[in-house]
Specification:
- By secondary structure, this protein is mostly beta strands.
- The chain folds into two domains: 106 residues, Immunoglobulin-like (Sandwich), CATH 2.60.40; 148 residues, Galactose-binding domain-like (Jelly Rolls), CATH 2.60.120.260.
- Helices cover 4% and strands 48% of the residues.
- The chain contains one helix and 20 strands.
- The strands form five sheets. Strands 3, 6, 8, 9, 10 and 12 form a six-stranded antiparallel sheet that branches. It has a five-stranded antiparallel sheet with strand order 4-5-13-7-11, with no helix packed on it. Strands 17-16-19-20 form a four-stranded antiparallel sheet.
- A hairpin with a 2-residue loop joins strand 1 and strand 2.
- The two termini are 21 Å apart.
- The N terminus is likely disordered.
- Calcium ion binds next to loops.
């Protein structure tokens, strides 16, 4: 099989139905008031105003418009929804953002807390690109740390210019799932600029995982099982732009052969942006 065919299969299989969306009102179709989407907490409307919007909206009838109200960093606020989670399992957050405003970007992240509500860690923030004048998917993949019982799903405004306040973007069709992948949605696509392909696939164990990066940076390549548990870290560190091939022996972090089944090879950068390839292991 030539490489182009393998890449096509990798992309086709990467968008698969996974577990149910854990968010309430993920499509912002329901509002208690024009400044209060049902199920979401507005953090601080003096710093980030939240309003019902219908143009643009990615799904009927509404989206949420977030407006940055204060200048400088450190005032990044927006929307929160708290969700129950299980420690040591992988989770995927993705949100569609319409951003054509250089004064602001949308940023999404996950804050993990213990059963008492105490902060444990944050996934790192993944940002929208203000130069894309269309709906774009922003994704974070992270593993709930030991002791995690809840997750704060955060959608916040970020200013980078240090300039005046202002700027707005729109959010719609959020999903937060247990597992590593992307919920199947109309128009779903992978994040551009990075590709991960497993060869051969299906594999009996030893395999080559090819990565393509559009720009240099620090990346992680991990293998997760269907439950979202992290099986092994295959690569962690800086790579140049271009194509790289990493060998994987089909074993987990403890050196044990993984059983036959469905797995995900996940390429992620330091802010959690992820590209996923489904991997079938046949012993
Ligand atoms: Ca909507």
């Amino acid at each position: 099989m030539n490489r182009l065919t393998v890449i096509a299969i990798g992309i086709a299989l990467a968008v698969v139905p996974l577990s149910a969306n854990l968010l309430q009102n993920p499509d912002f179709s329901s509002w208690d008031a024009p400044d209060q989407p049902t199920g979401w907490t507005v953090e601080d409307s003096t710093r980030a105003e939240v309003e019902q919007a219908d143009n643009p909206a990615r799904s009927p009838q509404y989206s949420a418009r977030l407006t940055r109200k204060v200048e400088s960093t450190g005032n990044n606020k927006g929307l929160i929804q708290q969700v129950g989670v299980s420690a040591n399992l992988g989770y995927t957050l993705d949100v569609w953002i319409y951003d054509d405003d250089m004064d602001v970007s949308g940023g999404i992240s996950i804050t993990w807390r213990d059963a008492g509500g105490t902060y444990i860690s944050n996934s790192g923030v993944s940002y929208s690109d203000s130069s894309q004048h269309s709906w774009q998917r922003v994704t974070v993949v992270d593993t709930a740390p030991a002791g995690a019982a809840t997750a704060d799903v955060l959608i916040r405004t970020y200013g980078f210019t240090g300039g005046p306040s202002g700027g707005r973007f729109y959010v719609d069709d959020a999903s937060f799932i247990q597992g590593v992948g992307i919920l199947e949605q109309p128009g779903a696509g992978l994040r551009p600029g990075a590709v991960v392909v497993v060869e051969p696939n299906p594999t009996s164990g030893p395999s080559q995982i090819a990565l393509e990066l559009s720009r240099p940076g620090r990346v992680r390549l991990d293998v997760y099982d269907m439950a979202g548990s992290l099986c092994t870290n295959v690569h962690s560190g800086g790579l140049d732009a271009g194509r790289h091939v990493v060998s994987w022996n089909g074993r987990d972090n403890a050196g044990q052969l993984l059983p036959s089944g469905l797995y995900f090879a996940v390429l992620s950068d330091s802010s959690g942006n992820a590209t996923v390839c489904k991997l079938v292991l046949k012993r």
